[in-house]
Amino acid sequence: MEFEVIPAVDMRGGKCVQLVQGVPGSEMVSLDDPVAVALDWVAQGAKTLHLIDLDGALDGKRVNAPIIEKIVSAGKKRGVIIQIGGGIRSFEDAAHLLKLGADRVILSTAALREPELVKRLADEFGSVHINVALDSKNGKVAIEGWKKISEFTAVAMGRKFEKLGAGTLLFTNIDTEGLMKGVDPEPTAELVKAVNIPVIASGGITTLRDILTIRATGACGVVVGSALYTGKFTYPEALNILKERQK
User: Fold this and answer.
1) pLDDT tens across 128-143, in order?
2) Pick the catalytic residue: 10, 53, 55, 103?
3) I need a surface site. Which of 130, 202, 233, 241 has the fewest CB within 10 A?
4) Is 135 an active-site residue?
5) CATH number for the domain that contains residue 180
6) Which residue of the set 55, 103, 135, 210 is catalytic?
7) Cβ-count burial of 99 within 10 angstroms (0-12 exposed, 13-18 middle, 19+ buried)?
8) What is the pLDDT of residues 30-63, one digit of tens each?
9) Closest of 184, 29, 142, 21 to residue 9, by C-alpha
10) Is 219 within 8 Å of 188 (Cβ atoms)?
11) Number of domains in the chain
């Protein structure tokens, strides 16, 4: 699988935002039109979009559903892969998004609480459409919009969900996420080595070098949010650095 830089489109209250450490009220970026933002990333060369419904994740409210539907519809017309997470708490939630046209649903809290949900969805829709998010803080997986810390490690959960049928894993290092201070590649590399399914990384990307650092872990891609939105580098620059280092 070719390594990808995947732009994040995080939504809260109908706007495209970037939070610091996932804390409500810490918005460093707030843009009024998430659909336009998403399509702009596509125009710049993005082949995959990472959509997160923060209201769903933090409050269980799907106020961003109409926006998500518009992005999925527009993205599918352009052949873009779309993965969606945030507040997917049930089989019905996930099934709705997949039937809507999402390529991958991202399960987090629901997967930790009801692991068999992953198997049920994989059996019904195929493993390729099921992603499990492992958001790690101080070595343990966080749930409920990062408000609670479980007793499980990302490696243990990654192995478990691979057996249950997850097609990919999304690993977010909360310890570096949103701080704009660079990445810590060790936890990502550890998870990549522990499983046989693709791992997408997230958290802390600040420079173009950070992208190369994450690629070196063996991850299949990296989700980038704040660095792109605050102008640390452009999306075309991210694509170019990958091409240059492949020569």
Assistant:
1) 999 999 999 888 898 7
2) 10
3) 241
4) yes
5) 3.20.20.70
6) 135
7) exposed
8) 899 999 999 999 999 999 999 999 988 777 778 8
9) 29
10) yes
11) 1
